[in-house]
Amino acid sequence: MTQPTQPAQSPQPSPADHVIVLFGATGDLARRKLLPGLFHLAKAGLMPRRYRIVGSAPAAEALSDQDFRAHARQAVAEFGRSRPEGPVWQEFESALSFGSADPAAPEPLVEAVRAAEQAVGGTPRRLFHLAVPPVAFTSVIELLGATGLAQDARVIVEKPFGTDLASARALNGTIHAVFDESRVFRIDHFLGKEAVDNILALRFANGLFEPLWNREHISHVQIDVPEQIDIQGRAHFFEGTGTFRDMIVTHLFQLLGFVAMEPPVVLDAQSLRDEQVKVFRSLRPLDPAHVVRGQYTGYRAEPGVDPASDTETFAALRVEIDNWRWAGVPFLLRSGKALAEGRHVVTLGLREPVLGMFPLNARAAVDGRSNELVIDFADPGSITARFLVKEPGPSMRLAEADMVFGYRSSFTADNSLEGYEHLLLEAMLGDQSFFTRSDGIERLWEVSSPLLDAPPAVEPYAPGTWGPDSIDALAAPHRWHLPDRR
Ligand code: BG6
User: Fold this and answer.
1) b/e for 102-127, b at 16 or more Cβ within 10 A?
2) In whole angstroms, how large is the CA radius of gyration of the chain?
3) Around 450, how many Cα atoms within 13 Å sit in the side-chain half-sphere?
4) Strand pairing class (51-56; 96-98)
5) Is pLDDT at 22 greater than 60 in this prediction?
6) 360 CB-near residues (< 8 Å, 6+ apart)
7) Organism's domain of life (predicted)?
8) Ligand 1 pocket, mutate which of 190, 251, 312, 343 (most atoms under 8 A from CB)
9) How far apart are CA 244 and CA 265, in angstroms?
10) Between β-strands 51-56 and 125-130, what pairing exists: parallel, antiparallel or unpaired?
11) pLDDT tens digits for 426-441?
12) Mean pLDDT of 165-177
């Protein structure tokens, strides 16, 4: 009799009963991501058995419970994956209430939370989601401390996690005065993408890839997140932020932590985050000479943008990790607005074999981008191994070939969660694996200091391109995988 080779899959753990409080409930993030995301979790049967969601905002923007429900319905209709109707919607809608909060007048919120807790019954967990702009952050944290609402509660914190080392330290100090680190969930939606889990699976569940995942076999790594969209009217936000802070420190460095990490001792939050932070500690401080800052032509004419603005809408960097696994292997990072395509791609370039057995002319058609492992983490993503094969025919000619695994063609997407949905669920489960830790954040700002202190001048690029021309020299002797030949 054959024995099963796999233990049965463990069932999806279910979160304990919860009262979730959304600060910034009338804002853009709640509308686009949080309310639709929570409803999707309800549809997927992943919300706690009993829960309530309390929206909050300053008294000047207060809504009645009724209006908040209408607001949520509108948000789900506009941005959700399923329509706000049927019994699941009715149950979700009846779990919504509103309580305004100002530092001098927190009572409506305190009362709404108490009422929600009573409605849930027992001692539900409290989870605060701070979808508020940085200026409001300290006062909300202090309010949670002063009212006692913070007691035993968890808190989800939205980026930016500071804008430099000093502000990141100050922010962490503010948070830690009220919440110890074990209750803080700094959310980076890139870490909620399936691809991050999949990088772990690819590396650590197979005998094929991990043995190659080091300086012996890999010549360079690219983490490439071009965006086709421009700043979409967000001049006020973007002028003070720029691509380096908005995308690189936040999202791309976080991905780099997972691509480059050592195998964790076990797959739990502490081990994963320890390994991620070890990567950050090994990062060499950024050299401004290895950074290209770009600005798309026309940016300075956008409404709300300073006509002499030096803010970058594009950043490309070559960074190095000083550890035994990666010494000497350049990591190329790129992101920017108004580029040719919107993509999310991690590419590992494999070294050439040590001896060139095949005559040079056998490789005439090859452009130097064979020998690559390409992880495309669009939702749903794909993994491609690109290599050389013999072209059929009498002579020994080499041609490029792709071996592609595509999520869409291999699995149903029904069970997939978007970044925010995945992370909201993890926060309710109390699992910090895919949330950033304070020491990691501070280290990233520390290595960024030389660049922030002496940024190179911005170089113009035409919208619809791949950025300033100088990025080719940054990547040399390698070349950017994108644009790819599809
Ligand atoms: C956000 C940035 O965090 O991420 C935006 O503020 C950016 O500027 C967005 O467009 C990209 O996210 P995604 O998941 O669409 O690639």
Assistant:
1) beeebebbeebbebbbeebeeebbbb
2) 24
3) 11
4) parallel
5) yes
6) none
7) Bacteria
8) 251
9) 32
10) unpaired
11) 999 999 999 999 999 9
12) 97
Q: Positive or negative CA dihedral for 40, 42, 43, 44?
A: positive
pTM greater than 0.85 (yes/no)? yes
Tell me whether the omega of the peptide bond preceding residue 477 falls within 30 degrees of 0, making it cis. yes
In this prediction, residue 7 has a pLDDT band, given cuts at 50, 70 and 90, of very low
SS (H, E, C) 153-169: CEEEECCCCCCCHHHHH
User: Which residue, chain included where needed, has tokens 């976080």?
Assistant: 254
Closest CA to 415 of 126, 23, 11, 87: 11
CA of 339 to the centre of ligand 1 (A): 14
Question: From ligand 1's centre to the CA of 212, what distance in Å?
Answer: 31
Residue 12 near residue 61, CB atoms below 8 Å: no
The identity of residue 124, as a single letter, is P
Would residue 344 show up in a list of annotated catalytic residues for this protein? Answer: no
SS3 92: helix
Of 332, 337, 317, residue with least CA distance to 227: 337
Distance between CA 144 and CA 110 in Å, rounded? Answer: 9
**Residue with CA nearest ligand 1 atom 15:** 227
Instruction: Judge contact between 112 and 97, C-beta under 8 A.
Output: yes
Q: Measured from the CA of 189, which atom of ligand 1 is nearest?
A: 14
Rounded Cα–Cα distance for residues 321 and 256 (Å): 10
What length does the chain have? 486
The one-letter code for the residue type at 16 is A
User: Which tokens hold the place of 237?
Assistant: 């936000």
Amino acid identity, residue 351?
R
Looking at this protein, which amino acid is placed at residue 92?
Answer: F
Nearest to 430 by CA among 6, 22, 18, 1: 18
- pLDDT-above-90 percentage for the chain: 84
Q: Which two tokens stand for residue 32?
A: 């686009």
Rounded Cα distance between 224 and 226, Å, is: 6
Give how far Cα 62 sits from Cα of 33, 98, 372, Å.
Answer: 20, 8, 54
Dihedral pair phi/psi, residue 71, rounded to 5°: -60, -45
Annotated binding-site ranges for NADP(+): 24-31, 60, 159
* Rounded mean pLDDT, 130-142: 94
CA 152 – CA 146 distance, rounded (Å): 14
Residue closest via CA to ligand 1's atom 6 equals 246
Dihedral angle sign, alpha carbons of residues 254, 256, 262, 264 = positive
